[in-house]
């Protein structure tokens, strides 16, 4: 046990590490299909279950077979006839035990799923605090939680009962077999064949009763392992999940954009959906220019931006970077030159400087401050209690929307990306902070290749090329003036904005 303790704990550590790493590299699409709470449950509860059940069983699997083997060989030596008789009875016992095991595995798997859902609801409740409170939705969320919890409890009662059933039932079978042995063995002793001496028979019975505890321990262990197998299935669903967007073998290095991004005959549909969200997209994004994507909500702007970031690969068609297919480029090289500022600023519960330097090694404070200045963030940072060392709370909740967004921009400035993607970076802001952010964005875009999706059309009038998306297709493109003259989709959108 002393030496097994590091073994079991190290195995569990390795599984946990592997899962976490996998989560970091799985494609974005994986997470829209799975519940966050359930994923968290797998990395904690299911891994723990493995530690518990599989490791426990491994111990038994090492210890008991040896015991059993020694006893069986001795028994065989005393009376082959009687031992063969015992072996005829064993499969019946084995069958019943394995039935319990199978049903245990099923219930245990289901219970882990439910536990995942419980965690999902908890996670949503924690994240949705404000909405739950302002909509007085406590009772609704509570009932959702309670019914899941109730279902889980009922299932767990079943699981426990089944687990507890293994011990007694193998004991009953042990006694049953023992009785049969006594009957048959007794007849061998009393009968006149004289195959078995009375003294040998007594030794036989004594040894046979010693055989029952290890068999019982082994069957309990096997059934426990079934619970672990259910958890292992859930873990391997993550570990074996396909990285649909991944580096091909010998992926090409990328050192920055030289000429243009070219999108050719691109069609895209999300997994589990057979409708194309983007259809027949052909688009040139020249280096150093601003390309704007406009269109109604749901027209596919963000999807197109995600394709350029290579969060997804096109279903049909290709994206070429300086003539090289994006699929052939080293994805990590490519992303190193990519800066993304989205509508929702993703910040971490860490200091301001750590959030700006996010993921970059050896960044000097001077560089961080410079980026913050360009992003119009320096001033408000200096007004916080501890300046660049201030912790910003969960998801940056201690900052205002505009401040969060300016931190995101500072982060993008610091990375000094070649290619910039702005997805409605100002749409969640009030008009005053929008001006500050807008100004920061203009400074950020200077000299870079930018793809801009803007909520307010006034922010993209300066773009070199405006591309109008309508229901997943490009319907118009050109400069602001050209498009206005067309008097089509763009001018309609523009007029709607003007009257706001
Ligand atoms: P926009 O950014 O122009 O408002 P999106 O690109 O976000 O539009 O969405 C385009 C279409 O794709 C919408 O109809 C939306 O319902 C659908 N969509 C977006 N994300 C997903 C997803 N993860 N799975 C399935 N459909 C999606
Ligand atoms: Mg969008």
Give your account of this protein's structure.
This protein has a six-stranded mixed beta sheet, with helices on both faces. A four-stranded antiparallel beta sheet has the order 2-1-4-5, covered by helices on one side. It is built from 16 helices and ten strands. With 500 residues, the protein is an alpha/beta fold. It has helices spanning 4-25, 28-33, 36-78, 80-127, 129-134, 138-190, 198-239, 301-308, 331-336, 352-356, 365-374, 378-383, 401-415, 431-445, 480-486, 489-498, and strands at residues 260-268, 278-286, 290-294, 316-321, 324-325, 338-341, 419-423, 449-453, 465-470, 473-478. The N and C termini lie far apart (73 Å). Bound molecules: adenosine-5'-diphosphate and magnesium ion. Magnesium ion binds next to α8.
List keywords for this structure.
about 500 residues; 6-stranded mixed beta sheet; 4-stranded antiparallel beta sheet; binds adenosine-5'-diphosphate
SSE blueprint:
Layout: H1 4-25, H2 28-33, H3 36-78, H4 80-127, H5 129-134, H6 138-190, H7 198-239, E1 260-268, E2 278-286, E3 290-294, H8 301-308, E4 316-321, E5 324-325, H9 331-336, E6 338-341, H10 352-356, H11 365-374, H12 378-383, H13 401-415, E7 419-423, H14 431-445, E8 449-453, E9 465-470, E10 473-478, H15 480-486, H16 489-498
Parallel strand pairs: 3-8, 3-9, 6-7, 7-8
Antiparallel strand pairs: 1-2, 1-4, 4-5, 9-10
Bound molecules: adenosine-5'-diphosphate and magnesium ion (MG).
Magnesium ion (MG) is lined by residues 301-302, 424.
């Amino acid at each position: 046990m002393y030496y097994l303790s590091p073994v079991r704990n190290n195995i569990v550590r390795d599984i946990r590490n592997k899962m976490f790493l996998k989560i970091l590299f799985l494609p974005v699409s994986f997470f829209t299909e799975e519940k966050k709470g359930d994923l968290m449950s797998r990395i904690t509860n299911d891994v723990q279950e493995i530690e518990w059940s599989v490791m426990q069983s491994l111990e038994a699997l090492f210890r008991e077979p040896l015991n059993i083997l020694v006893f069986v060989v001795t028994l065989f030596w005393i009376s082959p006839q009687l031992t063969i008789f015992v072996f005829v009875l064993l499969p019946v016992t084995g069958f019943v035990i394995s039935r319990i095991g199978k049903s245990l595995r099923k219930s245990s798997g289901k219970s882990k799923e439910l536990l995942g859902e419980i965690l999902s609801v908890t996670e949503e409740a924690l994240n949705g605090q404000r909405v739950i409170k302002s909509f007085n939705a406590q009772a609704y969320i509570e009932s959702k939680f309670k019914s899941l919890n109730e279902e889980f409890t009922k299932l767990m009662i079943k699981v426990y009962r089944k687990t507890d059933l293994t011990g007694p039932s193998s004991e009953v079978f042990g006694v049953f077999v023992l009785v049969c042995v006594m009957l048959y063995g007794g007849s061998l002793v009393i009968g006149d064949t004289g195959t078995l001496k009375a003294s040998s028979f007594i030794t036989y019975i004594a040894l046979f009763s010693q055989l029952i505890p290890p068999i019982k321990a082994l069957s309990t262990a096997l059934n426990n392992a079934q619970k672990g197998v259910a958890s292992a299935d859930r873990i391997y669903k993550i570990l074996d999940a396909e990285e649909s967007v991944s580096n091909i073998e010998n992926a090409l290095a990328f050192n920055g954009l030289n000429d243009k991004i070219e999108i050719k005959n691109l069609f895209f549909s999300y997994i589990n959906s057979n409708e194309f969200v983007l259809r027949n997209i052909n688009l040139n994004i020249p280096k150093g220019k601003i390309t704007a994507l406009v269109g109604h909500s749901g027209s596919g702007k963000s999807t197109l931006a995600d394709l350029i970031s290579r969060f997804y690969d096109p279903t049909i068609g290709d994206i070429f970077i300086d003539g090289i297919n994006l699929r052939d480029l080293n994805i990590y090289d490519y992303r190193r030159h990519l800066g993304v500022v989205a509508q929702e600023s993703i910040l971490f519960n860490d200091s301001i400087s750590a959030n700006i330097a996010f993921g970059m090694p050896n960044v000097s404070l001077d560089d961080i401050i410079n980026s913050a200045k360009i992003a119009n963030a320096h001033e408000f940072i200096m007004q916080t209690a501890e300046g660049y060392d201030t912790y910003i709370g969960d998801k940056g909740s201690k900052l205002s929307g505009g401040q969060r967004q300016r931190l995101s921009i500072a982060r993008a400035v610091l990375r000094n990306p070649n290619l910039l993607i702005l997805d409605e970076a100002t749409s969640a802001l009030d008009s005053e902070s929008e001006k500050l952010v807008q100004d920061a964005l203009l400074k950020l875009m200077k000299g870079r290749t930018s793809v801009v999706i803007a909520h307010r059309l006034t922010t993209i009038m300066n773009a070199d090329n405006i591309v109008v998306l309508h229901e997943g297709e490009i319907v118009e493109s050109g400069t602001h003036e050209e498009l206005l003259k067309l008097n089509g989709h763009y001018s309609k959108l523009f007029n709607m904005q003007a009257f706001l």
